[in-house]
Amino acid sequence: MHKLDLLEDQFDRQKKIVWWEQERLLNSKVLLVGAGALGNEIAKNLTLVGVGQITIVDNDLVDLTNISRCVFFNEDDIGKNKAELLSKKIKSLRNINSDYFIGKIQELGIGVFENFDIVIGALDNREARSWVNEYSRMFGKPWVDGAIEGLNGLVRSFGIDGVCYECTLSEEDLKLLSVRKSCALLSEEEITIGKVPTTATSASIISGFQTQEALIYLSRKKVDLMPLISQQMTFFGESMSFLKSKLKEKKDCYIDHECIKFEKIHLDFNQKIEELINKYNISPSSRLYREIVSNCLCAQCDNKKVINKYISSLKQKDVLCANCNSEMQLETEKNIKEFINYSLNELNFPDNELIISEEKYILLTKEI
């Protein structure tokens, strides 16, 4: 009883805002993608206002350049995983629930978005933004994007219909994005877009607006009440000025702007796929939503290597021949009947991943 009273006192000032719903915040789940300068500030803000569950995704390690821009990182943290460290730090700041995933957002099952109320992007590359955009839309979740450069920055929000992130890209942007998304052979160095100048102040400003946008949605649960839905607010730090502009939906956007309907099945990922087909009455003609790289073949020495990974999880070392160090050719597969003697775990099948069975979407999740 005393604990509840303390929580009520702690949030007293913000609860005086007419439309504020503290209970909704306490029951909300936020997916934060990126744990750098923006991610640190967003995580801090969400924690202080009392959001109940914060899941953080990042594949990077803390380095010296992060120290001046990231409130939770110091020199003793250099070399540690950003996502894990940030999750631990905010839990020590307040008694909240937080977990993390060390890796790229592309390595998670695409159905992970279904588990959250809203997604906040603290990203520095188009590939990750594109991924968040496509699958948050597929599962009907709004997301708030932010970016900083020098003293400037921008914030924009995308809802469950209408304009999406891809609609904002030029033809040249889309061409480059298509090449990078399809190429599994890029090294981590090659796929990282050049570092841009940023400051702690610009991160604080932009992250504040991102968090505010998310809180308005979480308190009201109405996308159309988000001030920046389908709009972009650009901040010019040197002149301390703002420009707000409407984003236009592309009628020929290649992203499906409709949310999907799906069936969810909880199952044991150690079972063979043949068992799953029989047990859950899944059609043998079902197919994976995303292709799996089943094998790699070396054209130079005929070496063959079993891979069984999604292309989004491949590293350059995975496709180099162990015999002659040549780049190997990829064999991909979608039909599940080709994998009937494998378990989902043996296929590196991620939790919360889709298959398509007789034109129906089925979301496969691990039994707890």
What this model shows, in words?
- With 368 residues, this protein is of the alpha/beta class.
- The protein has two domains: 2-246, Rossmann fold; 262-366, Structural Genomics Hypothetical 15.5 Kd Protein In mrcA-pckA Intergenic Region, Chain A (Roll).
- The protein is 27% helix and 24% strand.
- The chain has helices spanning 2-10, 12-15, 22-26, 37-49, 82-93, 126-138, 171-182, 188-191, 200-220, 273-279; strands at residues 29-33, 53-58, 97-102, 118-121, 143-149, 152-158, 231-236, 241-246, 262-267, 287-297, 304-310, 329-335, 353-357, 360-366.
- Helix 4 (37-49) runs parallel beside helix 5 and helix 4 (37-49) crosses helix 9 (200-220).
- The longest helix has 21 residues, at 200-220.
- It is globular and about 60 Å long.
- It starts with a helix and ends with a strand.
> Judging by the overall fold, what is the CATH architecture of the largest domain?
3-Layer(aba) Sandwich
Could you give me the name of the CATH homologous superfamily of the largest domain?
NAD(P)-binding Rossmann-like Domain
CATH topology of the largest domain: Rossmann fold
Number of continuous helical runs: 10
The helical percent reads 25-40%
Characterize the largest beta sheet: strand count, sense, and whether it forms a barrel: 8 strands, mixed
State the secondary-structure class. alpha/beta
- Calculate Rg over CA atoms: 22 Å
Regions with little confidence, pLDDT below 50 for 5+ residues? 184-194
Could you tell me how far the N terminus lies from the C terminus, measured between alpha carbons in angstroms? 31 Å
**Percentage of residues in strands:** 15-25%
- Which CATH class of the largest domain applies here? Alpha Beta
**Overall pLDDT level:** 91
Number of strands: 14
Number of domains: 2
Secondary-structure element order, N to C: HHHEHEHEEHEEHHHEEEHEEEEE
User: What would you call the shape?
Assistant: globular
In the sheet with the most strands, the strands line up as: 3-2-1-4-5-6-7-8
